[in-house]
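Researcher: Next entry in the queue.
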Amino acid sequence: MIVGIPREIKSQENRVAIVPAGVEVLSTRGHTVLVEKSAGTGSAIPDEDFAAVGAQLVGRDEVFARAEMVMKVKEPLPAEYPLLREGQILFTYLHLASNDALTRALLERKVIGIAYETVEDRGRLPLLTPMSEVAGRVSVQVGARFMEKAHGGRGVLLSGVPGVPPAKVVILGGGIVGRNATQVAVGMGARVTVLDLDTDLLARIEETYHGRLTTLKSSPLNIREAIKDADLVIGAVLVKGDRAPYLITRDMLKSMKKGAVIVDVSIDQGGCVETSRPTTHADPVYEVDGVIHYCVANMPGGVPLTSTYALTNATLAYAAAIADQGAEKALAANGGLRKGLNVFKGAVTLRPIADLFRLPYRSPEDVLGIASPR
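Model: Structure for this entry, 374 residues:
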């Protein structure tokens, strides 16, 4: 198979979809890997390193024109829509629930869209996990920065100092993002409160930190009370393949302290704060009712030397299976990979997306012509 790796064009997205070690694996299995020139520059990977392990360095148009599978980090932007073609495999983060235009473009182009974030393995999301780990840890790092007075915050030090209390951090969601945010926030000495619907999950978090934080069952009342005196709120909510619910409404902001910071990691899926809208690394924050909103839609792109390698570690085995077998055989053989199929040659194959945008739905098994799982 011909696998294409374009350079990411999203604002300040410095990751690349594969590292040289991954190219070498695909090349030794007999596949051709086309890497757009300078694709790895943002991750400190020079073209020579890709060429040394068998990659062909080509221009952008050639990557899309020749590739049978295009591997990316982020979803295609409008400038890339016309480059996609019928039957081409697109293997990347798609986050279609927050992007009606992209959904319809992929349907029109009749691509096979396999989304990293909905691939499953025994109930886990293995291709989302590494970037969720990064985003969770980064969320506290950037939150602490924007709490500083020079960046518009209240001027609170996350850890406090002897005789002065630390900042209060509220984390909405105890999944991968939330747990990683908790690890960093507790480690830095903040007063941390974690809210989630799953009390068993909250119990495990409490056992891990032995009373060094507070857990609360998530409810509108508990959220309202928790954020009133928060210095930093981290939105870490995920509904697989669907839009994130609004947990903080515009009215709730009025009760928050002026200069408090919200980092909405859920922004890829529409955000869990009613006033959230996507921002970029170049212009990361804005203010509503005196509350600073950080809603960068590609947070791991800010630490590409970590993120790029972590992503390839997770995606390579799946990419190799698709390249070895072809998309249809690989999807038919692996039920977890099949859950990553969002669109297939003009059909929506992920029910939450079909329901959200009121589009016809066909199951992955139906489009592949295989028996449905029992």
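Model: The chain has 14 helices and 15 strands.
Researcher: Noted, moving on.
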